[in-house]
Amino acid sequence: xxxxxxxxxxxxxxxxxxxxxxxxxxxxxxxxxxxxxxxxxxxxxxxxxxxxxxxxxxxxxxxxxxxxxxxxxxxxxxxxxxxxxxxxxxxxxxxxxxxxxxxxxxxxxxxxxxxxxxxxxxxxxxxxxxxxxxxxxxxxxxxxxxxxxxxxxxxxxxxxxxxxxxxxxxxxxxxxxxxxxxxxxxxxxxxxxxxxxxxxxxxxxxxxxxxxxxxxxxxxxxxxxxxxxxxxxxxxxxxxxxxxxxxxxxxxxxxxxxxxxxxxxxxxxxxxxxxxxxxxxxxxxxxxxxxxxxxxxxxxxxxxxxxxxxxxxxxxxxxxxxxxxxxxxxxxxxxxxxxxxxxxxxxxxxxxxxxxxxxxxxxxxxxxxxxxxxxxxxxxxxxxxxxxxxxxxxxxxxxxxxxxxxxxxxxxxxxxxxxxxxxxxxxxxxxxxxxxxxxxxxxxxxxxxxxxxxxxxxxxxxxxxxxxxxxxxxxxxxxxxxxxxxxxxxxxxxxxxxxxxxxxxxxxxxxxxxxxxxxxxxxxxxxxx
Length: 529
What we know:
By secondary structure, this protein is mostly helical. The chain is 74% helix and 2% strand. Helix 1 (2-20) runs antiparallel to helix 3, helix 9 packs antiparallel against helix 11 (257-264) and helix 15 crosses helix 19 (424-451).
């Protein structure tokens, strides 16, 4: 009885949220207070049902429930984590928007499409088959397009929405093609049926159809378009004219849909090592590419946009290496951080001043290389102690050595400035922070690994020469980025670095073809608004 009630409750909030999209925008703008009340009630209802769903999962286990036709609910630990994340972030954004948009003539329409988009994303997470998933995928794009054009009088807002529209339609085509192949290959589009057949193919590889590789590649391409992976990333930094709550929703929720797709379909994706390796390579390149550009951006929002692209690239790298639990940990932590960062972006100047602390006015004495050696050693020590204390063997974890190296470079970047500063208090703080970060990373991994134990498929990548070369190149790239940061910090007047800075600040000009295509499709003479 309890299970049946909770299952119906889980399905109700997304339906109500989607139903708000049917309301007249004119009526919504005339009834602002009513829309605000509806928004807070429905967002709160979604959050409460997400909490109730966790109780259902703990008592009854995963749920695969058919409502009728293509409407099927698939609720497992992956759905539970992501739905709770969406509901929590959505509730905060709704409450923030009430104050942020106070007094605007079109705020009723804004709440209408904000709720619709939350409903579409929630439906996507709860989908039990590829038809429902693809429909929710498209509805999410529709809702986001309406939010991006909230300030339709701003040329850049319309321009960014048009570019995003084109990339989203390309992603829809990839997903529809993959859906057709899935029906032809499996004879069903239900996740439970697809996953059961994938396990049979894993046990008997000779029976695996050749279409699996192409299907996985199409899903990878679809995920790349939704999660702003190179070369489909250029729309995200152009969305600066949209309201801040929309930016928070995009960066903390919607853009995770590509990663969720790959994690959800992990039993299928791991059957194609080539698709997984390509996903890892593209994700690693995107993380490096966007990370360099992020360091050169002059505005907070553009820096956060490229930070999101880089973090999504890192998440895709984790997925491509088969580290799905780490990818979900990354997705969750990044979403919470980005929601806070965007909603708190107005306080950036005050926060920067407060962070200076005891380092204000100090210089950095000594040789940077001499500080790098102890920083690297301390970082390695923190990680080794944390991993060994938890009984984690990196060699037998998907992508363990690669991700361990990246974590080492991150901790080294944290410790190096403090050691070079040669200030006792700052050094002590940095060491404590490094220990805390490494311990939190390991604890988070253990938690999410246990949570996802029955929801994803883990498989080490085959030791093929291409895969080995890809992993080696990825490691070399992250080490190069580490040293580049140190060189930039110590050689500020180098002419080659100055040239690199100019090119990076302009995104290495890779968005020019996307702008030209957008102008051509909409019949514009200029590739800029």
